[in-house]
């Protein structure tokens, strides 16, 4: 459920990536949409995609939207983490995404799923976004891109 951060409340900014902000407030981690960046004293960050002239969904823009979603606790996109197992776009504007989490009990799992759904829905002509959370195969560090492994010092 969304929380309301009161004006003047002390927050700790832990991450500013992909057009979103991750903060800790009252001991709880929360995601603040980039469009609400001004509430934190930053310029609002609005994600925008140009529509295709043929009225279809641009699969590259869907991938770009997915790559703009960052794990709230790890400074790496969900694509580079290897959390996205599959993505299908049909001619009717439906997008189906199969993804996982770094751990099945991840407390920010629903936040990630909601962020994926919201970001992909910003792509022009997308009518429906279905996100299926799966845990088979289980995620492992081997699924991360080399870039992500370098970012996290795992090489």
Overall 3D geometry?
Answer: globular
User: Helicity, in percent?
Assistant: 10-25%
* Alpha-beta content class: alpha+beta
How many helices in DSSP terms?
Answer: 4
* Biggest sheet strand line-up: 1-2-3
Sequence stretches where pLDDT stays below 50 over 5 or more residues:
none
| Helix-strand topology string | EEEHHEEHEH
Distance between the termini: 37 Å
The major β-sheet equals: 3 strands, antiparallel
Task: Report the β-strand fraction as a percent range.
Answer: 15-25%
Mean pLDDT metric: 91
| Number of separate strands | 6
Structural Rg: 16 Å
Task: Spell out the blueprint of helices and strands.
Blueprint: E1 12-17, E2 20-25, E3 28-33, H1 59-67, H2 78-81, E4 84-89, E5 94-99, H3 109-121, E6 128-133, H4 146-151
Parallel strand pairs: 5-6
Antiparallel strand pairs: 1-2, 2-3, 4-5
Protein traits:
three-stranded mixed beta sheet, 155 residues, globular
Protein model, in words:
It is a single chain. This protein has four helices and six strands. It has helices spanning 59-67, 78-81, 109-121, 146-151; strands at residues 12-17, 20-25, 28-33, 84-89, 94-99, 128-133. The longest helix is centred in the last third of the chain and has 13 residues, at 109-121.
